[in-house]
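Supplementary material to the annual report.
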Amino acid sequence: MTPPRLRFAPSPTGYLHVGGARTALFNWLYARRHGGQFLLRVEDTDKARSTDASTRAIFEGLEWLGLRWDEEVVYQGASAARHRADAERMVANDHAYRCFCTAADLDFRRKLAEANEGAFKYDRRCDELDRADVARRVAAGEPNVIRFRVPEGSTGWTDLVHGEISFPNKDIEDFVVLRSDGTPIYNMAVTSDDIAMRITLVMRGDDHISNTPKQIMIYRALGEALPQFAHLPMIHGNDGKKLSKRHGATAVADWQHEGILPQAMVNFLSLLGWSPGGEFDEVMSIDELIAKFDASGLRKTASVFDTKKLEWMNGQHLVRMPLGELSPLVRRKLASAGLATEADLAARPEWFNALLELLRVRARTVDDIVRQARPFLSDTVGYDETAAARAWKDTADARALLAAAREVLAACALWEHAALETDLKSLAEARGLGVGKLFGPMRVALTGEANSPGMFDVLILLGRDVALFRLDAAIRELDRRTG
RNA sequence: GGCGGUAUCGUCUAGAGGCCUAGGACGCGGCCCUCUCAAGGCUGUAACACGGGUUCGAAUCCCGUUACCGCUACCA
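Predicted assembly:
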């Protein structure tokens, strides 16, 4: 069995969206799993809609996901001469013919047919033309397209996802393969390119199922061996409709900017339309995915992009990934948020790693970590009003508690977990309070928030100086509030 | 309209005739843990689109209906 060759063939007409990313991923996984090649082809034949910015966005999206392609990128637009030559070859070997019907005429006939019920199908009138006549009109420069002559019978294949699929040829009209300006129609270009790239497995969205018989006919007309086909189901938004801007972030770059990890995105996407089968741990590394991926696990049904589950998945990867990998990521985000400089954080790696360990377990995105890190990095804290309203309900009481805590902490012999716990617990006990009643007001004083890591962790991370400073500040704030 | 594809909890799915009074995961609810929030553990909620067959027996096979999606362009 020769190594398979697959390709991802996006049109550069926008960002890389999650559906395209999933298609690319499955192609890539299949190639990696079976020791084959994963190629990238940019289908830029539609010059009006294609942009360089989109092409770059697609590259960047694939790179971010870690889907490295083999060989040089193929630009479809660069092969126009071959597309045309292939179309003309089909005329030469009698599988296609010249058609002189104009677009306007066709349009008229189509409307007429539809008005009188019944779908319009090209009537092959130009296939009746005399050969000499055709040659003369072509020589005279009369505009013409090349139409494929659809044979009798039916056209089918064994789809890796759907099994046997076949179409009666009578339902397929003699379709155009080359426009009058000499440029190819999609099905011509794709087939010509897939042949040239020696693609052995065409894996793409199932919106191409109806195109497949036409492409198969072209392969045959050109005397080429057929590749295998696999048509993947689509990904929909949470309303069950096709993904669009309305559904929020459908661009992989948007998720990147919201703090989703590429490995989590890959993992999540891999489970949309594919399953290893049986019971398994859904959280998987890229290597595990490659090892497990197989066409037999491909599913037929469209799936909904569930952002909640993506976020959960991201949280799982956040906790499991090596700290050494997470650390620079967060440092970069912290720096661009203006909360710290990368140099400062790099200078105290142990402290920073301890912080990350505490925060990542309660975060779902990298951005969550950044938000939660604020009290540990900025000089002062702002008090969250709902948190303050609850924990400092009785200001006099809270003030007294914080003053007492300040005193205990200032005198605490050792600034470490055990000592802090002993001292603070005895303070609470002396006052006849549960520790919660003491830690609540302290938490707001120290972090400004209602939620944070455990009190002793917070104190240790902050250090004695900052902790005492914040308690003082909170006491002053409470004085102010009391009036 | 014609042709093609699809149909299991709200969502992702397991299931390839009896193992299914349908399993897992996300979400949601409860309990435990607990200084808060997470994480973790336990647990509850919730599905075979509908109708006919085939079979001793169907979520699984066949047919029809319905719904959704795609194609039906000198778009990709």
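The CA atoms of residues 346 and 352 of chain A lie 8 Å apart.
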